[in-house]
Amino acid sequence: MFNADAGRSRRMLYRRMGTTGIKVSVISLGLKHNFNSEKDFKSCREIVLTAFNNGINYFDLGGNFGDKANDYETSGMTEKIFGKIMQEDLMPYRDEIVISTKVGGKSMSDAPMSEGGSRKLILSQVDKSLERLRIPYVDILFHENYDHDINPEETALALAEVVKQGKALYIGLTNYTSLEVRRMADLLRKLDVPFVGGQIRYSYLIRDAEDDGVVDTYFDFGGGTMAYQCLAQGLLTNKYISQDIPEVCRATKDFIPTLNREDVTEELRGTLTKLNIVAAQRAQSIGQISLAWVLKNQKIATAVVGVCKIPQLAEDIGVLKKLGFTPDELKRLGDEQITKGRKR
Length: 344
Hints:
Distance between the termini: 37 Å
Largest sheet: 8 strands, parallel, barrel
Mean pLDDT: 88
Number of strands: 10
Radius of gyration: 19 Å
Helix content: 25-40%
CATH architecture of the domain at 8-234 and 297-309: Alpha-Beta Barrel
Order of helices and strands: EEEHEHEHEHEHEHHEHHEHH
CATH class of the domain at 8-234 and 297-309: Alpha Beta
CATH superfamily of the domain at 8-234 and 297-309: NADP-dependent oxidoreductase domain
CATH topology of the domain at 8-234 and 297-309: TIM Barrel
Structural class: alpha/beta
Strand order of the largest sheet: 3-4-5-6-7-8-9-10
């Protein structure tokens, strides 16, 4: 039987999601890529429980997390694994934990209504997620990707219905532009739906969100922002400074299809080398200074990290030792070139 460490919350910092009542750990755990097989349950359980024992209270999931290409049997596997961990270990601590899932994003199915913002899809996906998670509600339900093909009121009404049914406490948005956020958040406000903010892809290398102003838009509606891919799918780590790319890493094509060896350019290595100089002076790794850089914006409540090993988790949490920057450090970091972003 799992007994959580009594001092866990003292090891972590927490930020509020905008002006809502939700507080999340500044480092949170995303379960997209490494929780996709039941045979890995033991290691998944160890990662989740270690995270919780170190004060991480937010766990980011999605209905399509765990899916493998052309493998329908893995659909929703991440939620199934996390649901088992909840039932066997974490239910006594449910009031401390913030759990989110997502609806509307690309699914494994090729059915005509397998993604988007329709009422039918949203209500169906929520029920399936809760069944896999084995809990009666999620704290935050994110709608993923604004649906330009339907009336946005349909999406808003469906999300409001989920809250009314008690299946989600708050509604959020992910992968929305600033303009799309304004349209949907305004509709949700008129329906008296508790709006928590949203998620953005954001890192030292990928700053599309800055040009769009979406963080401030979420804040205008009383919400906060969660940043994902803060380490640019692993590019913002020390492993890519050298010419040799590890055989088992995110830059091998068979590991994660949206990142490959061609992404590790000489230009990137130059940026990482300069970044590493500042990091070393701060007694940090490239990954740690990159997380600190994301969190320097107080409107960003948490950096969502994905790990496959406990040492990676420990390194990410280690950023708490030094989050702030001196004016000189910011000046030196601000001169780096921004690379082109990728889709999630």
